[in-house]
Amino acid sequence: MKITIFGTGYVGLVTGACLADVGHDVVCMDVDQAKIDKLIGGQIPIYEPGLEPIVKHNAEAGRLSFTTDTEAAVAHGELQFIAVGTPPDEDGSADLQYVLAVARAIGQHMDGYKVVVDKSTVPVGTGDKVRDAVRAELDRRGLELDFDVVSNPEFLKEGAAINDFMKPDRIVVGTDSDRARELLRETYYPFNRNHDRMIFMDIRSAELTKYAANAMLATKISFMNEIANLSERLGADVEAVRRGIGSDPRIGYHFIYPGCGYGGSCFPKDVQALARTAAGCDYEARLLNAVESVNLSQKYVLFDKVSHYFQGQLDGKVIAVWGLSFKPNTDDMREAPSRALMEALWKAGAKVQAFDPEAMSETQRIYGDQDGLTLCGTKEQALKGADALVICTEWKEFRSPDFASIAATLSEPVVFDGRNLYEADMLSRHGLIYYAIGRGRNQ
Ligand code: NAD
Asked: Which atom of ligand 1 is nearest to the CA of 122?
């Protein structure tokens, strides 16, 4: 099938590459000329495991191409996927300017039936706005062309995006059109062979499904962080509590890890946006507001522990930070807990020596020549001359480091672990003092 994707970010590029990989003829369009130039030159602008060979292979096979030409992009696909960003507005609601710009562009250039498929995460009611935007452009051109609008929210996880797209748990499609329904079924047929993963519903329910999923996951994290904070005050070990509750199949072990707060481009903005949507229909989303507020303070828990350890005297201290991306296997730094930590450390006069396996150039792009930031080539280099080590992201390579050498290198043998990677006994054998999240009174 002929498919156009607007937006070549994490979602758009993965969607385009995976659809091309099963044989569809895909054009990816982006307004960012530099991104498109890179893609045309065979470079992948983001770090996502497994994405590069798929993009290369399908581009070479002529099934995947990249352009900044809106008119050509609209002309190409019978299906027009919108996968552009929906960042938070000033008040936390989703900013729809990019989504609606694409809808208008489609209306400006289409010359026959199109299915406009919204893959971006958008508030309930956006399907109507997209329909109105397309229709307004057609009216302006004096044309009466048939088109359908579909909501097809994306559930992929950065870091595991290819597998999530290729083997989805579910494919949610919100539509009121039989024609669009059949086209979407055909598009996703190769991903839906083992058993039927397609869940059809109305557009509003599909739009809400995406927010509900992310809000539920964020709620699990904030809930566990609250239990972790309580554990510290009550002398309990949240890791034991986690295993204790996870064994109940109604709760399960997934997504109940305590830590230094959730980040990324989705949970923070989606929880906020859903709460603003609720406020917009005179409903106070008390649970969602609490989830957000627990997370905002959780992002400062590591700083508070470091500051407490050094008795508030952080001026001139050098802190090694391992892990900058908001989670492992991505270079995405949006809303990453590491940023809250580093910014608080700089404010307190401390210096940061940071290492991340993939997010170094993204950190460089965001903080440039920030005073008090040294980007280090290895995790060992980050320790040299440092007073303490803080771990923000659970990259695999941090799981079994050389503890003896950490103890010998740091001026104070202390590790603050925002992801509960180790056991206190293990570290104390090497002479290290260990602070984790929610693990008893000494925390
Ligand atoms: P992103 O910021 O990585 O990419 C968005 C891209 O859209 C950018 O390259 C930008 O240049 C491009 N763009 C902006 N305006 C455009 C236009 N008019 N025409 C063409 N391209 C345009 O965003 P993302 O992380 O891929 O997220 C996209 C959407 O998918 C968001 O709504 C997000 O909430 C949702 N989502 C993201 C994830 C994720 O893990 N990142 C997962 C599921 C859903």
From this structure: 32
Q: Read off the pTM.
A: 0.95
SS3 call for 340: helix
Number of helices followed by number of strands (H, E) in the chain:
18, 14
Which domains, from first to last, does the chain contain?
A: 2-201 (3.40.50.720), 202-443 (3.40.50.720)
Q: Which atom of ligand 1 is nearest to the CA of 99?
A: 18
Q: In degrees, to the nearest 5, what angle opens at C-alpha 71 toward C-alphas 67 and 73?
A: 45
Q: Which two tokens stand for residue 6?
A: 């607007």
User: What positions carry a catalytic annotation?
Assistant: 266
Between the CA of 166 and the centroid of ligand 1 the distance, in Å, is 19
- Name every protein residue with a CB atom under 6 angstroms from any ligand 1 atom: 6-12, 29-32, 35, 83-86, 98, 101-102, 120-121, 154, 156, 158, 265-266
| 443 residues of the chain, pLDDT tens digit each | 999 999 999 999 999 999 999 999 999 999 999 999 999 999 999 999 999 999 999 999 999 999 999 999 999 999 999 999 999 998 889 999 999 999 999 999 999 999 999 999 999 999 999 999 999 999 999 999 999 999 999 999 999 999 999 999 999 999 999 999 999 999 999 999 989 999 999 999 999 999 999 999 999 999 999 999 999 999 999 999 999 999 999 999 999 999 999 999 899 999 999 999 999 999 999 999 999 999 999 999 999 999 999 999 999 999 999 999 999 999 999 999 999 999 999 999 999 999 999 999 999 999 988 999 999 999 999 999 999 999 999 999 999 999 999 999 999 999 999 999 999 999 999 999 999 999 998 66
Regarding beta strands 2-6 and 79-82, do their DSSP bridges make them parallel or antiparallel, or are they unpaired?
Answer: parallel
Please give the Cα distance from 139 to 108 (Å, whole number): 10
Which ipTM was obtained for this model? 0.99
